[in-house]
Amino acid sequence: MIQSSETTLAPAPVEVQKGWGGQSVKRKEDKRLLQGEGVFVDDVKRHGMGYLHFVRSPYAHAHITRVDVSAAEAIDGVYGTLTGEEVAALTDPFFQISSVPGANIKDFSLAVGKVRYVGEPVVAVVAETRELARDASELVEVDYEPLAAVVDARVAQDSDTPVLHDDAGGNLMWSGLYSWGDLDAAFAEADRVVKIPELHFHRFNSTPLECDGALVEYNRGVSQWTIHTNNQFPGFAAIMMGPAMKVGLDKLRFVTQDIGGGFGNKITSHPQLVVCCLLARKLNRPVQWTEWRTDFHLSMSHGNERWFRDTEVAVKDDGTLLGFRTKALDDAGAWLRYEPLGGVIWAQVTPGMYRWKHIELEFTQVATNKAPVSPNRGYSRMQHLWFTERVIDIVARELDLDPVEVRKRNYVRAEDMPYTTPNGCVYDSGDYAAMLDLALGLVGYDSMEARRADAKERGKLLGVGIGSTLDSGTNNFGQSRLINPELQFSGNNEVATVKLDIFGEIVVTLGTTPQGQGHETTAAQVVADILNCSVDDVHVRAGHDSYWNSHAGFSGTYASQFAVTGLSAVKGATEMLAAEIKKLAGAVFGGVPAEALELADGGVRIKESPDAFLPFMACGAIINANNAGLPEDLDVTLNCRYVYRPPFEVPDVETKMGNLTLTYACQVHVAVVEVDPETGAYEIVDYAAVDDCGKRINPQIVEGQVMGATAQAIGAAVHETYEYDEDGNLLTPNFYDYHVPHALDMPPLATGAIESPSPFTPLGTKGMGEGGGAGIHAVCAAIQDATGQIVTDSHNPYQRVWRLLQEAKA
Amino acid sequence: MDVTVTVNGTTYERDVEPRKLLIHFLRDDLDLTGSHVGCDTGNCGACSVIVDGVLVKSCMLLAVQANGASIETVEGLAEGDELTPLQLAFNEHHALQCGYCTPGMLMSATALLRENPSPSEDEIAKALQGNICRCTGYWNIVEAVKSVAK
Ligand code: FES
Ligand code: FES
Which chain B residues contact residue A703 at CB under 8 A? Predict the structure, then answer.
């Protein structure tokens, strides 16, 4: 069942932005995409290119005893191959973010000597056609000596468990103790201690519809690679690839136009990109790689699977939350491709939305024989927020309190904003209780008891669940030092350039790599407001090219930040341009001061005598092509580059205190489910999603992100899982077995919005789009409400609900 | 093998490997890259095209099976720069984000509307159930199709 959604605005007065900002301007990027004229990575072709196919491991854990590519290479039309041995000779292992023991592992772009998960790339074959590359791969002979596999993180550190990385001396990759406040005092003050032995957050990811890919060209003359790719964080890829390939970053040019979804899953394709680069050089021809869906499922960017064990929560009888301690055990899979950053990213939202003061979390990350984990929409915070939401509902149940009341009693209050959390993060703004009221109103909470009775009459169990989450955005990369104090990363940045071209064209270049977030549109809105022109007059270049000089170390599109980093860069650059236009016009008009000028109607004019008007076209022409006689000291280029740098300090490595992100958008979702007590099958019959991301530049785009995050969360809650058998075989390696929601699966949806502008960002915006997995939390809570049984897993297919119901009977 | 197809009114004659999928023929041989590949099991619908009036997933057909057929792809929907009402509705209702599923969605919805110009919401959702979108959650897509239903 699908039903239209409607947006309800909070009754509270909302300051509406003037001009283009705040309007649901229709997206500029749509026209090409609607006509099939987008340029996605697999659309890029070059003369003489070869298609790359990976030979992948059929074993979860095995020694490689022999690799023979001769039969494959003998085939007509096969251009060549690359083996792990060659990779080990040509490159260094990737730099590791982790401190020891994870720091000691040796990660190459193809398996060297050993395979560690099913689907791990072992050999690459390049041939004239896709089909031939695939066929030839079958002729590559690899001999394996299988080893026992570890697929359960909980036994990864046991003495009889096989070890993935001998270099690390065991399967422990990283561990750290986070402790803030005074736990002993909290537990001494508590009326009750609620104990939760084990909670499990399952493995899944967002499965962007377009898989990973690249077309790589090598320019022998200047020893430089041009990498057309859909990697969504080229800055990170470059930092990983350059040192491994022993080349400077100027040798790696990243180009992207359209990307078919990313959701974090396209951050860690750097190993495959290295293979493409090495082969483009070795074979002296462009190399094209498009991942197959099965390959994606087997090997790319699974979301972090996490256990929370031995949780103890200190509470007062009235439901006041004092503190908690827990042990988080994170399953990294076989390699640390972005990990162990998940070991600190969760700390951005340490207390969730609540005023918990005393918190202790022991974080342990282990390696297992499964695909490597990497960021996935809501990266690491989602797992933690699911935990905090589970705790709230379990506490409410144990104390026989209303989950709505427990939330309201403990939410950070609007009057406390900006609110400093126990670990030094500063929640910038928001009114969580008002959001909850709005969300409850949207599902008709007042009449829920009547509906419950009605459902009962129909033989159904009705349940209501809340998911309240934060979408922390604009990372302070200094948090990486809490993982490894040796790292020299901190802060964040993004770049934009805005220029007037010869004929007055306003041309904007972004450092970002959008995957559907509408950056061309929202950037144009910001520019148009400052230059006082139409969005139609603003040309935002599609995609990303590291040759454009509009990128910085952290450029990319990830971690809910464009509305802050990207748009603040755009704002900064446009304001510079506006000032330069006025400076130029002032000179042309014979020394008129900037204050006396204004931008309007596609040009600049003297406020008092509007007839003195210089169109942008004239400005562009004068500076670019007709500049003789201009005053010597007129430092105007009309080509302005601005780097936005958020205000951050380096977090304290000892106390692990510090503000880890700049903004904290928030979500409250409410799900209403009806469970069939006989079968465990359930339907989400009502759903509300309320979002507050500060000022919304384009409310329709914001709502689209909310919808997308909601759909992904519902999919994960009900259907999607990367489950492995005991031998390490992935049981859901394609869209046939891995069920993502279809149009018919979607519940009726009502969306609502509150705007609490961020006091910390130039536009009052907050990054958004990831959501915090609120749908997963809401569905879990609703199932708990319906069945009366504590829900301990984030994934609740019908059979698990059926089991809960059996437990209830027993 | 020799294959002759008409795509969006243009006739193409090509020598094709017998095992080549229709989607790869369209994309790689005819350079019609509007139709996409999102899976390898026939589940996602990103490759949907209309062959002799019938909606098909072009990854589930060999190019040689399309010999003699008349094929419609996303590139053929608009008249030059004039978008169809359905395409305009997708823009109006924000029915696309990354745009990767969009060509397939448009073809499925076009086929539906030809057969049933006034579908209900449920009929729309049913008609689109072979098309996966990972960005939008479908609400706006259904809304867009509904808005052009008679
Ligand atoms: S590519 Fe044809 S259905 Fe997915
Ligand atoms: S818009 Fe991205 S998959 Fe549908």
Answer: 94
